[in-house]
Amino acid sequence: MQGFDFQNLGLLLFVATIVAIVTRRLRLQYSVGLVAAGIALALLAPGSSPPLTPNLIYFVFLPPLVFEAAIQIPWRPFRRDMPLLLALVTLGVILAAGTVAVGMHYLSGWSWIGAGLFGVLIAATDPVAVIATFRQVKVPDRLHLLVEAESLLNDGVAAVGFAILVGVAGGGAAGPGAIGLQLFTTVAGGVVAGATVAVPLILLAGRSDDFLVEITLTMLIAYGSFLVAEHFHASGVLATLTAGMIVGNWGLLGAFTTQGRASVLRHWEYVAFLINSLIFMLIGGREATMPILIVIESAVLAVALSLLGRAVAVYPVTLAFARSSLRIPWAYKHVLFWGGLRGALALGLALALPGTIRERDEIVVVAFAVVAVSIFVQGLTMPWLIGKLGLNKPEPGPETEPRA
Question: What is the pTM for the complete model shown?
C-alpha cells in the first residue's frame, strides 16, 4: 500500500476516534460520519489516505469483517430460517442483478456483459451500517438475524456470481453445465475450506488455557479460511462465514476457556471497529475524487434500479413464505429492503473489473455513486424507519432464544 505509513494510519485512527465521539453524542450513524470525514480529509489533506484497492478490500478488510459478524450468528435460529435465507440470497440476488442489468443495458446502452457484471456487484449488500443502527436501537432478535445473515450470505453469492461472469467475459466456458459446476464447486469448496481450517485450530485452542493463544488462533482461522479457499478458487467469503459460525457456535461455547471466550469477543469487536473505521474513511476519500457529474445520468439510473432490484429481491421472495412458519411481518420486509445498503464488497468488485470491459471506468464511478447514496440516504434514515415501524421494542417469543 504505497503512501500508507504510520503517520497516515495514526491520522486516520485519530479522526475515527473523534468521529466516534461526535456521532455518538449527536446520535448519528458512525459509518456516515466516517465517510464524511474521509471526504473532508481528501479535500483538505490530499494524499493523507492510502488508495482503496481491490486487494486491500478483499484480502485485508473483508475476512475480519465477515468473521466478526459470523461469530455472532446463533446456529439454531439460523437453521430455522435457512430456507428463507437461501431463497433471498439465491433467487433474490438473481432477481436484483437481473433487474439492474436489464435496466442499464436498455436505458444506459451498456453492453450485456458490463451491465451483468454491474448488476451482480451492486447486488452485494453491506450489513455494517444497519447492524450499527441495531446496536443503538434495539430490534427483535429475528430481524437482526435476518438482516445480518442475509447480507453475509448475499455477499458470498454475489462474489461467486461476479467471479463466474468475469471468467465468461475472459473467454471461459459459458454453457449452463459448466457454469453450474463452477458455481457448485465454488460454494461447496468455500464451505469445506472454512470447516477444514476452523475445526483443527479450535481443537488446538482447546488444549491451551492461554486466552492470547485462543485469540491468535481465531485470527488464523479468519484469514486462513479465506486464503485457503481463494487459493483453490473457491469462495473466500463463504469459507470465512462458515469458519466464523463454527467458532461462534462450537469454539466459544465449548473449546475455549471462559476468559478466552470473553477476550475473543472483545478482540473481534475492536478489530471490526478498526477495520470499519478505516474502510469507510477510505471510501469517503475515494468518493471525493470520483468524477460523478460526468456520468450523473447513469448514476441516477443505477441508484433507482438498485432500489428497484432490492425490492424485487425482497418482497416477492418473502411473500412466497407467507403461508409457512417462516413468514415474516411486513415491517421486517421493509427493513430488509431499505437495509440492503451497498458498501465495501461492491466497490472492491467494481475496482477489480478487468480492463477489457468497455464500461469499466464508468461502472467504477457509478458504483461509488450508488454506495454514497446508500450510506448517506438509507443509512441516515434507518433509525427513523425502525422507529416508524415500531421495531425498536423487542418482541418476546422464540426468536429471543439463546444461541445453541
Answer: 0.88
